[in-house]
Amino acid sequence: MSAIFNFQSLLTVILLLICTCAYIRAMAPSLLDKNKTGLLGIFWKCARIGKPMTAPYSFFFFYFVILFFIHAYRNV
Predict the structure, then answer these.
(1) ∠ at Cα 24 (30, 65), nearest 5°?
(2) Domain-located, residue 16
(3) Helix (H) or strand (E) holding 15
(4) CA angle at residue 15 from 54 to 7, to 5 degrees?
(5) What is the pTM of this model?
(6) Is residue 1 one of the residues assigned to a domain?
(7) How confident is the model at residue 51 (pLDDT cuts 50, 70, 90)?
(8) How far apart, in whole angstroms, are the C-alpha atoms of residue 19 and residue 53?
(9) Domain of 43, in residue numbers
(10) Is residue 73 over pLDDT 80?
(11) Helical (H) or strand (E) element with 48
(12) Number of domains in the chain
């Protein structure tokens, strides 16, 4: 099933995008800072969102990992 039609998968993809952009901006800020507008500006905005909120995002990822394993265990 596509991540667009499953809310949990869509939320996981969005959280992963935000955390990845924040990590890239922390390691190489020039990659994202030069594209603040346009289509690539989405990644800069995700990095700005993810910078101050790393603790809540890590909690949500931990929650989704637990749900994933519970769901995978039930389908075995």
Answers:
(1) 165
(2) yes
(3) helix 7-27
(4) 145
(5) 0.66
(6) no
(7) confident
(8) 9
(9) 7-74
(10) no
(11) helix 41-50
(12) 1
Lookup: tokens for 23:
């990590």
Is residue 1 over pLDDT 60?
A: no
Helix (H) or strand (E) holding 55: helix 54-74
23 found inside a domain: yes
∠ CA 61-63-25, nearest 5°, is: 15
> Which residue matches tokens 């994933």?
68
Take residue 2 and report the two structure tokens written for it.
């596509």
What does the DSSP 8-state code read for residue 38? S
DSSP-derived 3-state class of residue 62? helix
* Bigger pLDDT: 30 vs 74: 30
Residue 52 located in a structural domain: yes
Report the greatest alpha carbon distance in the chain.
Answer: 47
CA 8 to chain centre: 12
- Nearest residue to 20 (alpha-carbon basis) of 42, 47, 58, 53: 47
The total of other beta-carbon atoms located within 10 Å of residue 47's CB is 23
